Amino acid sequence: MSPPPVIVLVRPQLGENIGKAARAMLNFGLTEMRLVAPRDGWPNPSAGPAAAGADGVLDGAKVYDTLAEAVGDCVNVYATTVRKRGVTKPVVTPEQAASEIHAELGRSAYVFGPERSGLETEDVALARAILTVPINPEFASLNLAQAVILCAYEWSKQVGLSQPTVEELLPPAPQEELEGLIGHFERLLDAKNYFWPEPRAETNRLTLRNLLTKPAWNHLEVRTFRGILSTLERDKRDR
Asked: What does the alpha-carbon distance between residue 223 and residue 217 come to, in Å, rounded to a whole number?
């Protein structure tokens, strides 16, 4: 099984973007960040708040002077860019890159360029392949964290991350309880002449029944409704 890929940010400009990238990484199980010549140095006080709890990723981030040093132990290097920049390389999607990474025994790296300009030709030349996200050609603009999360998500699909806990839903209330609720409503509405005039009474009762049986209320919801109706009845009697 291949080790998780590393995320390499080349000359990142804003601490906030580094923090957001760390958050995107940890969302999908990636923890190793490498920084190449960050513009404002490292550590950056703006990164922590933007990481929203992914402080472990930031604490473990390593800083390198050059991209070649940052990916020196990697056998697969993917340069994320929207264009080839004059370098002939295989071009893959995030999904294809993820499949290759899982099939490779060695360490792989996703490389992301500076926020404004992206990777330079020299950076792309170090990569084994170019990773390009299929995107709307009329608005081909992704921020750094978005690009990171797309790659991390595709990689995570093959590692079986736990799904969010699903709240256990109660079964629908039995028909007997619904009949009690419907009867309770009808009793209160009869007292208010809701079902008048008589020619419309049957239609109104049928509409009420359809309304109360359609949502598949569970027994707690039915009890809540009955409690509300009982409170309204009690308030009327106490006046």
From this structure: 10
